[in-house]
Amino acid sequence: MYTIKAFAKINLYLKITGFLDGYHTLESRFLRLDDLYDTISFMPCECKSFTIEGMDNVELKNNTIYKSFVALNNFSGNLDILNFFYHHKVVVNKQIPTLAGLGGGSSDAASFLMLANKVCGLNIDTPTLATIGSRVGADVAFFVYNYKVANVSGFGEIIEPFEEDDIEVELFTPDFGCDTALVYKAFKDNFLKNVSQKSFEHWKKIKFKDILEEVSSDRSLLNDLYKAATLVYPKLKTQKNEEWFFSGSGSTFFKLNKR
Length: 259
Description:
Blueprint: E1 2-20, E2 23-44, E3 52-53, H1 64-76, H2 79-86, E4 88-93, H3 104-119, H4 126-134, H5 140-145, E5 149-154, E6 158-161, E7 169-172, H6 180-190, H7 208-214, H8 225-232, E8 245-246, E9 253-256
Helix pairs in contact: 1-3, 6-8
């Protein structure tokens, strides 16, 4: 059996910078959460086709792990991949909530790519593997690089490690999720025309504590998707007070643990 951890992440901040080729572009800072993760395992199995267990609620062709499998095959053309997964199944132990803004699906996809690259002896370098992952989902490249903290921009494919202060967070995920596509559509329909990068273009150079000082009068400025999400899911407004911050496009909030 081969196993890898697929870590969650939060967006310390998330700003939309534009809209191009049908997708939003962004500037964000991701923080990997080392104490929250799914586990991806390859276990012996005589399989007639690519098999995933532990995610029965997701149709195979919509599963990010399956999409990674297809993308890896399309890139490498290596028959060793197909042969390996005729003799192994993918088993997922899900701990990261879905539709929560914690990157669970993207992390699962990245972890599959990294583990398959290793056990199948493909020897694909990290930047190339990240590029393959970017074809699967916007956040996959971040997880492939496996940085603790990074500035993420473009469509999510530009990853720059950042030296951040040690940050400990507490999470709160309501008993409902947020559909990413609906949240982004609400942003496009209601807020995209007001996008301006001048107020935050320097954020990628400063630490999170300094960014917090700049937005002390309105913490919602940290995440452009918060107001869009509340249009689609009004009950988000009643979930947490001003000590909590909205992460990503899902329903999770986080707050800083004081040392």
